[in-house]
Specification:
The protein is an alpha/beta fold. It is 51% helix and 17% strand. Strand 3, helix 4 and strand 4 form a beta-alpha-beta unit. It is globular and about 75 Å long. The structure holds SN-glycerol-3-phosphate. SN-glycerol-3-phosphate (G3P) binds next to helix 7.
Amino acid sequence: MKLFLDTGDIAEVSKAAEWGVIDGVTTNPTLIAKTGRGFRETVLEICSLVPGGAISAEVVATEYDEMLREALEIASWNEQIVVKVPLIRDGIRLTKELTKRNIRTNVTLVFSVSQALLAAKAGATYISNFVGRVDDISGDGMAAVAETVAMVENYGFPSEVLVASVRHPLHVVEAVQAGAHVSTMPFKVLDQLFNHPLTDIGLKRFLDDWNAAGLEIFERVAR
Ligand code: G3P
């Protein structure tokens, strides 16, 4: 499974990139607006921090001609960029056109398998299925993920199912169980994936025993 970081925050991308476990970064207009910096400079800095990673950057127009103009501009900035497109009628038309032009797409704001089918038919590289926003209104966000994974596999669509709107580590575990190809998450959730109390207890015991025995890795050599 690929792990993407869902952020526009350069410090967070830098920290996660150091760990070497992220395959890309997803942004959206809200996350970019929070940075207080320009869209292009932020996205390009993220590209340089995650070499070879898939970096999603979203169009903001909602009418086809302007969406296409924005998509071509965004895609021209760096070959790592994946154009994020909302699942609206003109967005699906745009996805089909970008697919023809060999520009990768991430179809976003997908909540149902019927929407995901349209994204897959249009050739979406990634289908961003939101889970947290459905859970927030007492739904089962992960149900559509499982159905979409089954759909792309049954019909052999090359699209990857990306679990988005992740709120906590259990969402990541459930995404794994559903066989999703990608999970994107805020830095806080990525950081939480490390945690287990038995790891902390176990490490403390190892180090206490080692120190009590007076052992050293770099032994002093008598000259
Ligand atoms: O970027 C798309 C998605 O991950 C947003 O998540 O937390 O705003 O529902 P959230």
